Amino acid sequence: SKTIYLKDYRAPDYLIDETHLTFELFEDHTLVHAQLVMRRNPELSAELPVLSLDGQQLELLRITLDDRELTAADYQLSDSHLTLQPTQASFVIDSTVRIHPESNTALEGLYKSSGMFCTQCEAEGFRKITYYLDRPDVMSKFTTTVSGDKQKYPILLSNGNPIASGSEEGGRHWATWEDPFKKPAYLFALVAGDLWCVEDKFTTLSSREVTLRIYVEPENIDKVQHAMDSLKKSMKWDEEVYGREYDLDIFMIVAVNDFNMGAMENKGLNIFNSSCVLARAETATDAAHQRVEAVVAHEYFHNWSGNRVTCRDWFQLSLKEGFTVFRDAEFSADMNSRTVKRIEDVAYLRTHQFAEDAGPMAHPVRPDAYMEISNFYTLTIYEKGSEVLRMIHTLLGNQAFRKGSDLYFERHDGQAVTCDDFVKAMEDASGIDLTQFKRWYTQAGTPRLAVSEAFDATARTYTLNFTQSCPATPGQSDKLPFVIPVELGLLDARGNDLPLRLQGEAAASGTSRVLSVTEAQQSFTFVDIAEQPLPSLLRGFSAPVKLSFPYDRDQLMFLMQHDSDGFNRWEAGQQLSVQVLQELIGQQQRGEALVLDQRLVTALRSLLQDGRLDQAMVAEMLSLPGEAYLTEISEVADVEAIHGAREFARQQLAEALFEPLWQRYQANREVSKGTPYVAEAEHFARRSLQNIALSYLMLTGKPEVLAATLEQYEACDNMTERLTALAVLVNSPFEAERGKALEAFAEHFKDNALVMDQWFSVQAASTLPGGLQRVQALMQHPAFTLKNPNKVRALIGAFAGQNLVNFHLADGSGYRFLADQVITLNALNPQIASRLLAPLTRWRKYAAARQALMKAELERILASGELSADVYEVVSKSLA
Ligand code: B3K
Ligand code: ZN
Questions:
Q1: Is 866 labeled as catalytic in the residue annotation?
Q2: Exactly one of 24, 265, 299, 383 is catalytic; which is it?
Q3: Which helix (H) or strand (E) holds 40?
Q4: Which residues line ligand 1 (CB under 6 A)?
Q5: In this predicted model, what pLDDT tens digit does every residue of 377-410 receive, in sequence order?
Q6: Burial track 140-153 (b if 16+ CB lie within 10 A, e otherwise)
Q7: pLDDT in tens, 242-258
Q8: pTM score, whole prediction
Q9: Probe ligand 1: pick from 265, 269, 305, max atoms within 8 Å of CB?
Q10: 19 forms bridges with which residues in the sheet?
Q11: What whole-number distance in Å separates Cα of residue 804 and Cα of residue 497?
């Protein structure tokens, strides 16, 4: 495979002003006619270089240049390009190709899912549909005609507005769509199927009426309302917070069952994984409801951050993704609980993105090189990219940030631009120089920020000393200092925030402030500090760094209770838990008896007993850091010791806190019983505390807990309570009840693929012994298929990513199993194969024996035959 470099970027030689497509859909093939109205790029010289169109897996039937039919002597064909020599600066190319969506298992380009036709073109899937300049800086006006069997495909959709339709002989019909906005080919979409829709209206800020439609398979029509509500909230929020108005007369979402990711922002015709559309109380959890809301918002927000203003090249991917994740995170924060959303996002970032940043695939937010762009839809591009945007927001403040985003959209509307263009708009609007800040885009790796303090009682000064560094990453051995915004406060002995005045300032301003750490070593001195304060650092996680400060456990308990920043109260609890768990891990490794620091019990008890606290916060604070996070922060991860220590702590907490947990559980279950399901923050909060309490309580094995679990399982009216009860049983020693519940669940939900995904996941994640055999047996279940990405993620992905003790079995059988699946999937669906591989790429985290076993499996994959570029890139970089 060949590496593509950012430094080799050249503007396109030719442009495509208009693209006229006609699709003739049949059961055993599809014909695609493309008329491309082209011209020489006027910004380049007048000479006419060779035209090289992208095209893969296409059977060329006919091609004309300005109405002259070309013969094989007029062009060259390879397995990736069609090249020919234009003779005029403006010309029209007309081609007809045959393709095979009916046998496309890679789910890229045009393919079939549950009998319907659909597309996925980002990043480079359009070249599997027709010969084209398949790059985001070639933007064209599209008209699309789709024709197909009227009975099988009553609904025919594409981007833009419908302009004509009609019937043909032979039971066929057709529809033509016109998209008035220029767009790159990756935003093209087509859908044909037997679909029902829910329709609604939205009136925009300039009083235009927009038709909203969500299309699903008929049996799912009762699970669409939540997505529709989410869409309307998103449209309103984008108008209010960013001044962005929708621009077409119709906005459509289509749910499909087989989809490689969550969803896709095609202009006017978003195509979604059904898991990110369908939600109702009986079948989807609170988490699923929130994910639907977030993904609907994310794709909708792309209409401006991605579609109206798009990326010049794929190295700029975070331009649209980082920005849009930041936008959807703020939306979710406004719709639900801001602090809880931040906690969830930070926990996810620190567990998964930090691991990526420390692994063989580490890359900057704006990468310099890639082999397969599909491999770069990563946590770094999305989640770290969003953190970079959040830091810009923090440094500029809300007003200047909004001015910057207005300027960006206005200046670049209709263009394909770069991350530099975005930052420039922010600089121009705010007058703030972001030159050094831009290192966040170019340097990979997670910065470390070590902080020490010095209090001078006589001078009444308090100094914080910051030292930043960043570990080497592939291809980047030395890093320059970052701009790290550190929001902080200083607590006095009663837990109050002190007024903050830095040396040299005339007066104190505020009690929570943002300091910019820009040097490798830098100190800040606060004056008028009468007594030794306790610092609360990196409030709200104001920068994606690993911060260290030598807190002792009593200080962490103090912050847990008193910090005015909700995020940092949680963070203090996490740090306390990490210290306690690391102590237990050490005891286990030395073969000593495990002894839990009772301060953790005390801290959690007082949370449980304080009825004034937000229940969602209490639930978050009761959640111990996960095994994956404990792995990430270990020098060498000891799988068994991590699992053993964490389970020991959970068991001890369950026993010591039985009374308050039981009380909170029963009180919340009572309310849940008497309240119909509502997908809103206060109800999420109640159920989350109820459910985490139940999972602790079951560790005691008491009969009254079993009875309560069975009661909840059977009598609840929603999937959140039901799935928790099931998971609690699955991880419990009550074998008979577990088997019965699993069977009853599968029987009841066997026709609902998304619910069955949950059923697979719950079992895949069970850490009871024999996990691999259970997963292998479940692969034989009639509801499982390797061809559906949701199923692969639910069973195999959950096993390898969440069930660490079973996946990392010392004999390497978990690794062998995963490699076998990757090898099979490589031929079926390279993108899914490459993603599934991730756990094996982390081999450097483990001791020698496991390293050897993991590497052997990577080598076996490498030697297994013809590898896709996707799998080859990840495997070869992991072994390098
Ligand atoms: N832009 C798409 C991701 C496409 C991934 C292609 N391999 C979804 C999103 O981020 O909104
Ligand atoms: Zn996106």
A1: no
A2: 299
A3: strand 30-40
A4: 122-123, 261, 263-265, 298-299, 302, 321, 374, 377
A5: 999 999 999 999 999 999 999 999 999 999 999 9
A6: bbbbbbbbbbeebb
A7: 999 999 999 999 999 99
A8: 0.99
A9: 265
A10: 36, 142
A11: 41
